[in-house]
Structures are given as structure tokens and as C-alpha cells.
Amino acid sequence: MGGFFRSKKFRIILCIIALLIGMMLYAVTQDGYTLPTTGFLGRILNPIRSASNSISTSVQDTLDVFTKSKAYQTENEELRQRVAELESQMVDYDKTKQDLADLSEFMGIKEDHPDNQFSDPCTIIGYVENDPFHGFYIDRGSDDGLSVYDPVVTAEGLVGIISEISDTYATVETICSPNLSIGAKASDKSESGIVEGDVTLSSNYRCRMIYLEKDTTLKSGDLITTSNSVGIFPQGYLIGSVESIEPMDNGLSYCAVIRPSVDLENLKNVIVIKDFAGKEQQDAAK
Amino acid sequence: MRQSKRKFLTQKPVRRPKLRNAIRWGLYAVCIFLAFVTANGGDFTKPLLLIPIALCISSVSGAVVSGGIGILCGLLLDISCGTLAGYHGILLFLICLAVSCMYDRLLLQRFWNLIWLTAVAAFVVTGFDFVFQYAIWGYHQVSQLYLHHTLPCLAYTVISSMICYPVFSLIHRFLLPKRRRTIEKKLKPMEETA
Description:
Number of domains of chain B: 1
CATH class of the domain at 181-265 in chain A: Mainly Beta
Number of helices of chain A: 8
Helix content of chain B: over 70%
Number of helices of chain B: 8
Coiled coil (chain A): 69-103
Order of helices and strands of chain B: HHHHHHHH
Largest sheet of chain A: 6 strands, antiparallel, barrel
Mean pLDDT of chain B: 84
Radius of gyration of chain A: 23 Å
Mean pLDDT of chain A: 80
Shape of chain B: elongated
Largest interface: A-B, 50 and 42 residues
Low-confidence stretches of chain B: 1-10
Keywords (chain A): Cell shape, Coiled coil, Membrane, Transmembrane, Transmembrane helix
Family (chain A): Belongs to the MreC family.
Shape of chain A: globular
Radius of gyration of chain B: 19 Å
CATH topology of chain B: Arp2/3 complex 21 kDa subunit ARPC3
Number of strands of chain B: 0
Low-confidence stretches of chain A: 105-110, 282-286
InterPro entries (chain A): Cell/Rod_1 (IPR042177), Cell/Rod_MreC_2 (IPR042175), MreC (IPR007221), MreC_beta-barrel_core (IPR055342)
Structural class of chain B: mainly alpha
Strand order of the largest sheet of chain A: 2-3-6-5-4-13
Organism (chain A): Ruminococcus callidus ATCC 27760
CATH architecture of chain B: Orthogonal Bundle
Helix content of chain A: 25-40%
Oligomer: heterodimer
């Protein structure tokens, strides 16, 4: 045994381990940018990942028909009820629509969003293997002008941020991840808090809004948007709607379970906000 | 038993060893490639297929080759899992090296040997993943993550090794030019003296 530790083989093993540790340390210093070799491999493997994901999705969709028939039946009944509710709400639809248009004009949302610089639509080419927080890869990277911490959105609302980037692809961390803290507020109330992912909620594609007062006026169905009070997200993007209000473990405050407005389970395309008003100041603050 | 062992010991060298080796490594490459490609398909818990594959190859390879396979599979695992480049590389390098040494000195090519080795390796890899990716960051109710995410992944990996082993066993049976059964080799002079 002692001979082994003095052998050439053992020295080679030590050298290889040192090389790998060196590589890890180098990767850490890249501040979210992947190593050149990883980026090169990713460039080659992106089409394959994309093909694999589309095959997997189609197989899953086919199998779902057989395995989830009971769930579909239940969902169908729920949807029927929901349609009935929506039909009753349609009566007020035109008035609400007019109100919304007036409010939008009043609050200057249309003037705010032109400041945001969007990327071209990005396609999801695969998912991070066994990520409980549903991270995924998109087919655009730093060559397309994206950078780490850029917010990722769809027309429905906020998806997450870019957590790691290569020349040709980027890794997106979703709002279900506990690593993200998003300054948020209720769209029509003064309530504000922090939206973050939660280990137990992420499996159902939910997140939560924490630091709510005990006498919170939030209720199920209230819409939550980004507030830009903290973090790296532009103001006014829809995060989701309140599903329920629950007390936090410490008993001092409440949290709201948020159902994201974006259907993270069936996401196909996203858009990255490359620049927005106030981003420079936030970068400087980091 | 004695007859079959004698038959094995006296069998002629396989024909075209270089061609068989090339085909064998080609099949290894295909298996690794398929395992990597399937890793990114779909947002659900999947087995870490690269682990049993790396172990199957290491079980019939020398220390240097096993180390290389461990590094390759580890780096591919880093890419598919989005972890720090080299993290899984180090883990699988050491595991494959240990497996190669164990098969060289202690173990025979048996189904259950590979299963328990895969279980141990997957336990180590998923355990380290859990600690470094989730536990040390102090996530709320992190044990739920271990129960509902890490353990299923571990179980799927062990189950997948039950499929990997027969596949690689077939490859080795037909394409492995040189047997590496050290214990049988050691038995040969004993039988001759008897």
C-alpha cells in the first residue's frame, strides 16, 4: 500500500485531481461564464439537445393521454366550472377592458416599456438534468448580446433570470428557485414583499411571497408584479396570482403562495430583456 | 464448474482483437452519447445514466482508462446538470479508479456486484450534489428535497444499472479481446500443480 503512494501512478492521479480542481477554480472566477471547452461542446450539442427534448416531449404527450386520463377528466370538470365563472365575468369585461386601458395610459406603462431592450425570441433546447427548480437551457448566448442576470420573460409575465451563459446558449433559473429574490407588490394594493422559490412548492411550479404583515389584505386571485424595489428585474412585469395565504414558520408574518402567470411546465419560447431603465444603476450597486 | 473453468482457461485467443476493440469503444461512445442526450430531455426526474455506464466500462478496464472514462462522463454530467465544470469530473474519476482497482483485485463480473457498486456511487454523487447544491445554502425544508428529488433520482439510477449491466455484459462477452479475470488467472497455476 505504501508503494502505491510513492508510485508514478499515484502522482499522475494527484496531477489530474489538481488539474480538475484548477479547472473548477477557473470556472468560479468566470462570474457565470462557462469555460471555452464547455461552450464549444454546447455549440456542437445544442441541436442534439433540442432534438432530444422534442422527442421526449412528444413521447411524454403521447403517454399522458393514457396515464393521466383520470387527471384530465378532473381537470375537464374544473375547466367547465371555470368557464362558467368566466362567462359570468364577461358581463363586466368591456368595462374592465376600458378601465384597464385608461389605467395603462394613466400609469405610463406604454411609456415605460419602450425603454426595455428585448432579445429575439429564444427557444428552450433542454432542461437542466434533475433540477427541482425547473431550470432550462435556451438557444441564445453572449453572441446574441445576452449576459448573466438578464431577466427572462414571456408575454404572460416573468420567467426568471439567466444564471449562466455561454457563446451560444444560456442557463435560465426560474422564479421557482430559492436562489432568486424578486421585489414584488400587489398590482392594485399597497402590499409589497419578496417573491422567492420554495423547496416544497417548486414541485408544483409555485413560488411564494414572503414578509407579508399579519393584517395583510391580499387574497386569492390578486395579481403580483415586480416592484423594482430590490433585485435586478424591471418594474411592472406580472409574476403571478395569489393562490392562498399561509402563516410563515416563525409565526411573525405571512406568506402568499403564488401561481406563476407563465405556464412553466409547458414553456416553449421566451424573451430576454437585455437592457432596461435603471439597469446600469443596479449593476453599479452589485 | 471445473470443466467450464478449464474450457475458459484453454480457449484460443480471440480473432481480430484490434477490430473488436474498435467496435467495443465505438459502442461505448454511442452509449455515452445517448445517455448524455437523453439527460436534457424533459423536465422530470431522470436516472444519472452516465454513472452505471462509467462503472460498467471501468469494471473491465485498467486504472488509467477508467480514470479517463470517469473524467469524460463526469464532465458530461457537469454540462447536463449545469454544475461547476470539473466537479462531477473529480467525483467520477475517483469512483471509476476505485471500481477498476476493486475489479482487478477483489471482484468478479457479477450482476449484483455492479448493482451495489452503482448504488454506492450514485449515493455518493447524489449525496454530494444534495449537500453542495442545496443543503449548504440553507434552503427551507431542504430534507423534503432529499426525499422527493434526490432519493428518486438515486433509485432510478440503480434501477437503470440493471438495464445497463446486461447491455455491457453482451458487449464485453463478444467484443472484449482479453479477459481480465485475475482470480481465474491466479487459479491456473494452482490447477496445473494439482
